[in-house]
Structure formats: C-alpha cells, structure tokens
Specification:
- By secondary structure, the protein is an alpha+beta fold.
- The protein folds into two domains: 109 residues, Roll (Ubiquitin-like (UB roll)); 293 residues, 2-Layer Sandwich (Creatine Kinase, Chain A, domain 2), CATH 3.30.590.10.
- The chain has twelve helices and 14 strands.
- The strands form two sheets. Strands 7, 8, 9, 10, 11, 12, 13 and 14 form an eight-stranded mixed beta sheet that branches. Strands 1, 2, 3, 4, 5 and 6 form a six-stranded mixed beta sheet that branches.
- A hairpin with a 7-residue loop joins strand 5 and strand 6.
- Helix 4 crosses helix 5, helix 6 packs across helix 8 and helix 9 packs antiparallel against helix 11.
- The longest helix has 21 residues.
- The mean pLDDT is 94.
- Its cofactor is Mg(2+).
- It holds the Pfam family Gln-synt_C.
- It comes from Tepidimonas fonticaldi.
- One of its GO terms (molecular function) is glutamine synthetase activity.
Length: 447
C-alpha cells in the first residue's frame, strides 16, 4: 500500500465515513463522478468513467465529432489525497475527494481541466517559478423561480422585504442574509476553504466573497467546491445562488477577478518587484502578455452567450485591456501594495468560468509575455470606458480567435483547444435555435 492510499484509508476510517463522493470537474466546472459506499471504495484501484464526460456541453449534449482517443473509451479516476474533505451537508458521514483523470497507461487525460492547469503550471516550473493567485467571486441570491421564462427577482431577507436599489458595501444589506452566510462560513471552514472578506456588491442581493491567496491548483479546487457549497446553502434556505455572469436585466454582472503574482521558487521573492522595490521587467512583460493574448483566450473568460452581456461600459466590467494603478475601469488593475505583494488583477473573467481553465488561461498569457518579453501600453490614469472595445463581442468570434492563436495552442495543446472550441460551437448552435421573448415581443407583429 503506497503512502497516498494509506493516507486516504486512514482519513476515511478516522471519520467513520459511510459514503464517498468521487468528483471530477468537467469542462463547465460542474461536479461529475460517482457516489460509492465506503466499503466498496478502493483508492488503490480508483474508478472508471467515460472520457466523453469531458466533452459534454453545459446542456449535457456533445459535439458532433468524437474527440476521445477511441470511440467512447473509459478513463481512470485517481484520487488526490490533498483534496479529501467532509461533505458538511450530508446526513451520514460522507467524504468528497477530487480525482485526477488518467488513461490506462498512466498518462494524464489531456481534456481534464485539472490536467490543463497542471500543464500550464509546468511551464513555470521549468523556469523555477511559482504563480500565486487569489480569486474574488461575485454571485447573486435570487428567489426560487422554476419557470425559466420569468425574470429572476431578489429574495426576501430577514426583514421580510426585498432590497431597494443597489447597496454597495452595505453591512446591513449583508446582514439581511445572516443565516445563509453563517452556514456558508461554517461549511467552508469544515472543508478547509480559506475564505477572506465578504462584501455586498453593486447589484441587488449581489455578494462577493474572496479567497486567500495560494497556489493555483489548490485555489481552483477551492473555487470549484465553493460554488457547490454556496448553491447548496441557498437551496436549503429556499432561494437560489447563481453564478451566471449576467442573471438579471438592469443589474451589474458577476465577475471572478483573479489576482496574480509570480515568486521565485528558490528565494521566495516576488519576481514582479526589483531589489529596490520598483516594478521589474518581468512585471511589465506579464502585463504585456495579458494585453496581447487575453483577446485570443476570451472563450475561457467568457465561456457562454450570456457571458458577453456582462462586458459593457460603465458597469464595473472591462471593455478593453487598458491597465492602471488602482484603476477599476481597466481590464488589468494593479492594486496598491508593498513590493513583495505586487500583483496584477485580471478583471476580465466572469464568475461563470471553469476556474481551472480561467486561471490556466490567465497564467498562460502572462507566461507568454515574460517569455516573449512583451511590453504593455502606458498605464492609464483616466477612465478606460472612454477608450474603444478591444475584446471579442460574442462567443463565435472568441472561438475563431482562440483557434487562430498558435502560441496558446502550443501551451494548451492543439487537441484540447479544438475540443474546447467544438464544445462551445455546439452550445452556440443550440442557443441560436431558441427564439427569445424580445424577438416575439418586437418582431412578431412589427416586421
């Protein structure tokens, strides 16, 4: 019995676990896998799952082309002991553990989002560098509404009223939902999810919770589990938590801002700062890479039709990739910080992203900038909203740009990019078949 297997068995035994949720994040960031009785779960063997699970669209459909190695093969699921956690809402002692997807020859399944992020991190490892990230997640609480044709509404709080107007940074507005946030914090603590601050965002019943900074794979795992936890808490309080990028008309969208820095593995020094505390060339090259390659990587930061509704002027969402010091109108913001904490905040991603792929894409763009020694524009001091759009405006344009970008294909792998593009193209086609209420209202009898 190897050390990992023994560690898992001991952990399960000590907590008298009766069931094990064996999870993998799919291409959308949803949890797939199997629930296995404890006595039948053998971490030395793992499980099997069809590899086609990694090619599913958000609707559960598949691209017309089969992108798996052979016709619908299985893959092995191998548990990662560092991800062992209690399921705090389960009635019986239940464990959850994220598994890695591998082929039967032991090689990594290249379509698995966790493996994609590992692949990007390997480029940093070759340079003896370690990226550090800190995600900020915005989401809405809304009333339960099973009819998809009815617009969403904010939920009733403890005063038995809905919020009036926007309540940015309001403590009292957050306290309207104290019962929910108490449980969120308790359940996240039980899972070892390192929550930092909680604030009320601009939108009605829109919240933001930040995670402590750390290594990218561990943070992506935490985002994956955090979303699952928040949805579960909300449902148990008779409301929904939604991570749609733009769930309600007339309200701001929801983002997942990604703070990024890079440290030298040997010294622990932040390579974005020089010895005298000034910005380093690597810092400027990283920003240059983001400005150059983020438009081509847009499909990872805005992965659905709805995602592009968020990216509009004057809504605290970027329309271009200007950068500036403590300038929230820019797509790339550099917060005030001491030299050792110098970082770049990528404000492009919606909270609807797959966290593994969004973090991977942001780090890939920054890496290319450092490798190619790209230089950014001058930092912007005014409003970026007064400058032109620089980003794809819809999903099919984003897919075209992604497929045309050879440097990103080198880092992500050609096969993965083509598979991801095919999934997004299938989702776009399915959406395009739907006739919206706007079309029926304004076109039905008027054209």
């Amino acid at each position: 019995m190897n050390d990992d297997v023994q560690r898992i068995q001991q952990w399960l035994d000590e907590r008298r676990i009766t069931e094990v949720e064996c999870l993998i994040p799919d291409m959308t960031g949803q949890a797939r896998g199997k629930i296995v009785p404890r006595h039948k779960y053998d971490p030395a063997v793992g499980l099997r799952l069809p590899e086609a699970v990694l090619t599913m669209t958000v609707t559960g459909d598949y691209p017309e082309q089969d992108f798996t190695p052979v016709a619908d093969p299985d893959m092995r699921l191998v548990p990662d002991p560092s991800t062992l956690r209690i399921v705090p809402w389960a009635k019986e002692p239940t464990a959850q553990i994220i598994h890695d997807c591998v082929h039967f020859d032991g090689t990594a399944a290249e379509l698995a989002p966790r493996n994609v992020l590992r692949r990007i991190l390997s480029f940093y490892e070759r340079e003896d560098l370690q990226p550090i990230v800190a995600p900020e997640m915005e989401f809405y609480l809304v009333e339960v509404e099973p009819d998809e044709d009815i617009p969403l509404k904010p939920p009733i709080g403890r005063t038995r009223r809905t919020e009036a107007g926007m309540q940015s940074f309001s403590i009292d507005a957050v306290n309207e939902y104290d019962d929910i946030f108490d449980v969120i914090y308790d359940w996240c603590e039980a899972q070892g999810l390192q929550l930092d601050t909680l604030i009320h965002e601009m939108g009605t019943a829109q919240m933001e919770i930040n995670l402590d900074h750390g290594e990218p794979l561990a943070l992506a795992d935490q985002v994956f589990l955090f979303k699952r936890t928040v949805r579960e808490v909300a449902i148990r309080h008779r409301m929904y938590a939604t991570f749609m990028a733009k769930p309600m008309q007339g309200q701001p969208g929801s983002a997942m801002h990604i703070h990024q820095s890079v440290i030298d593995r040997a010294s622990g020094h932040n390579v974005f700062s020089q010895a005298d505390g000034s910005p380093s060339p690597a810092f400027l090259h990283f920003i240059g890479g983001l400005q150059t390659y983020l438009p081509a990587a847009m499909a990872f930061f805005a992965p659905y039709i709805n995602s592009y509704r968020r990216l509009s002027r004057y809504t605290a969402a970027p329309i271009n990739l200007s950068w500036g010091y403590d300038n929230r109108t820019c797509g790339l913001r550099v917060p005030h910080s001491p030299p050792q904490a110098r970082r770049v905040e990528n404000r492009l991603a919606g909270v609807d992203v797959n966290p593994y792929l969004a973090i991977a894409a942001s780090l890939a763009c920054g890496y290319l900038g450092m490798r190619e020694r790209l230089l950014p524009t001058e930092p912007l001091t005014g409003s970026a909203y007064e400058h032109p759009h620089q980003l794809p405006r819809h999903l099919d344009d984003a897919i075209d740009r992604l497929l045309a970008c050879e440097p990103l294909a080198e880092l992500f792998g050609e096969h993965f990019l083509r598979t991801y593009a095919a999934i997004k193209e299938a989702e776009y086609r399915e959406y395009f078949d739907v006739i919206s209420p706007w079309e029926r209202r304004f076109l039905l009898l008027s054209v």
